[in-house]
Specification:
single chain; 292 residues; mainly alpha
Length: 292
């Protein structure tokens, strides 16, 4: 991989991962149209997602820190409740169980777990489908048209008021299913999940926060699945420098794009991205038909 490729892909990752235009769709289209051979691309893809992960954690540092603490406390309380169960059952005591979701951030944690379950299942089951879908221009093109439609619907969605204390586990499960389906190249993960959150009645600021934070376990899961393939990749010393430069660029661009995305959701300005996705999707489909 050359330095130019590393920089371009870093910029592309930072822009398309956080803005509602589908990073996987753009990469699939570029690879098909320009017949890109990224060489050690699998490793670089993993590293770019690490940069993505770090960026999300930086932007939502306070929330992520609180969620980690509350997750640990939930685990502790679960074990305490197990102990209480055995005492009540075998020692004939009447000890009250500890309420797991007694705090807002605890319910937030449980919602994230509920969302991650369908995402993980769908992501695993759809691996082969997603891989094959990215081999041609047709599926990414169709999915980008769908993304454009989703974004137009998002702009028309009424402003909800749900925050963690008001949201249901069914809402969390629904958003998780949408995130799982959005692994298809051309379906924007951020656009699809934000739309799902808004249609579930989430507060707009919380919808963005939930969309990005719920991507953390999904990204970690995807990284774990790719580690086996990365272990066999050999790279040159100079490429390591290129990878680091690309990661830094992806992180900086991504940081800016998350801030932009927050402003977009608040001001209902998805139409520009919707028309852009539809245009790129149409071009992709036309290119596919021309190649036949």
């Amino acid at each position: 991989m050359s330095l130019i490729q590393a920089i371009v892909l870093g910029i592309l990752q930072g822009l398309t991962e956080f803005l509602p235009v589908s990073s996987s769709g753009h990469l699939a289209i570029l690879k098909n149209i320009f017949h890109l051979d990224l060489g050690s691309g699998m490793l670089y893809d993993v590293l770019l997602h690490v940069a993505t992960l770090v960026t999300i954690c930086i932007v939502f540092f306070k929330d992520v820190a609180k969620l980690i603490v509350e997750f640990i406390m939930i685990v502790i309380d679960v074990f305490k409740n197990i102990g209480i169960f055995f005492q009540n059952t075998f020692a004939h005591r009447n000890i009250k169980y500890i309420r797991i979701t007694q705090k807002t951030y605890r319910k937030f944690v449980v919602m994230l777990i509920v969302s991650t379950i369908p995402t993980g299942i769908l992501g695993y089951l759809m691996q082969d489908i997603v891989e094959k879908a990215g081999l041609s221009l047709l599926i990414p093109g169709i999915c980008l048209l769908v993304t454009g439609g989703i974004l137009l619907i998002t702009d028309m969605a009424e402003t909800g008021k749900k925050k963690p204390k008001d949201a249901s586990m069914f809402d969390a499960f629904t958003v998780g299913v949408c995130q799982g389906i959005a692994t298809l190249p051309g379906l924007s993960r951020s656009g699809t999940t934000v739309a799902a959150c808004l249609l579930c009645g989430f507060d707009r600021k919380f919808a963005v926060k939930y969309s990005f934070i719920m991507s953390i376990p999904a990204i970690i899961g995807a990284l774990v699945l790719q580690l086996g393939n990365v272990a066999t990749v050999s790279i040159k010393t100079v490429e390591i420098v290129y990878y680091i430069i690309g990661m830094l660029i992806a992180a900086v661009v991504g940081f800016v794009c998350i801030k932009v995305m927050i402003a977009i959701v608040q001001s209902k300005r998805f139409k520009g991205f919707a028309f852009y996705c539809m245009a790129i999707g149409a071009i992709s489909i036309i290119c596919f038909l021309v190649q036949l």
